[in-house]
Structure formats: C-alpha cells, structure tokens
C-alpha cells in the first residue's frame, strides 16, 4: 500500500501514469511570473511559502490526502500513484507533491516516495 508521488511539468513531457493526476496550471498562480521567483525552485523556502499561501492550495492538499486514503481503503489494496503537474515543474507541482508526501507520511502510514521529474530542468521560456 505504498504511495508514489511524482511532480512534473507539462511543458517538458506528458504526465506520468497515475491513479490521480492533478493539473495546477490554470487555477493557481504561477510563481514563474514573478522575476524574483522565476529562477528559484521548490527547494527554496520563498517559493514553498508562496505556493502554500496561494488561495485554494491547502484545501486541495486536504482533498488529495483524502483521495489517496480512499484508494487505500478500497476493497483491493495496492500501491497508489499520484502525479502533480504545473507548467514547468519547478514551483507549484514539486511544492504540492512534497507537502502531500509529508502529510501522508506524518501519520506513520504506508511508505511514501516523492520524485520530482522536472525540478532540475532549466526554466522554460514562455
């Protein structure tokens, strides 16, 4: 009943296969638009704080954690995969993926693995 969470950027490649795929592109402000944040990543505290303060992100995280738990409670237990995407995969998606992983792991549940597919890639020119 492990959980694997992968963050990714739609501008780099198609989403990975997953039970749940979350698209953050259209509903949540992109830190990329801020010149001060553009070249930072989710590894930087300022980016994480900006994303987590975005209206709607905390309720989304609550809902995602609940959805993962619902999959785990189903009659056929097994691993659950979650894909979290944004435009470039450097700000919103890895922040949400990491926070979701933290929330799921903090209750000593099944093992949680978080992978950031596109975090190390260069900023996409848009």
From TrEMBL:
PANTHER family linked to this entry: RNASE ADAPTER PROTEIN RAPZ (PTHR30448)
Pfam families documented for this protein: PapZ_C (PF22740)
Record's protein name: ATPase
Gene Ontology MF terms: ATP binding
Domain RapZ C-terminal: residue ranges: 1-119
InterPro entries reported in the protein's UniProt record: RapZ-like, RapZ_C
């Amino acid at each position: 009943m492990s959980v694997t969470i992968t963050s990714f950027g739609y501008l780099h490649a198609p989403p990975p296969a997953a039970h749940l795929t979350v698209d953050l592109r259209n509903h949540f402000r992109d830190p990329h638009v801020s010149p001060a944040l553009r070249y930072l990543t989710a590894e930087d505290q300022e980016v994480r704080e900006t994303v987590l303060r975005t209206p709607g992100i905390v309720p989304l995280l609550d809902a995602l954690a609940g959805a993962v738990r619902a999959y785990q409670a189903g009659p056929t237990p097994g691993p659950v995969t979650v894909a979290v995407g944004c435009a470039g995969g450097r700000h919103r998606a890895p922040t949400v993926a990491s926070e979701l992983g933290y929330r799921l792991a903090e209750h000593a549940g099944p093992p949680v693995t978080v992978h950031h597919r596109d975090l190390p890639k260069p900023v996409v020119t848009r």
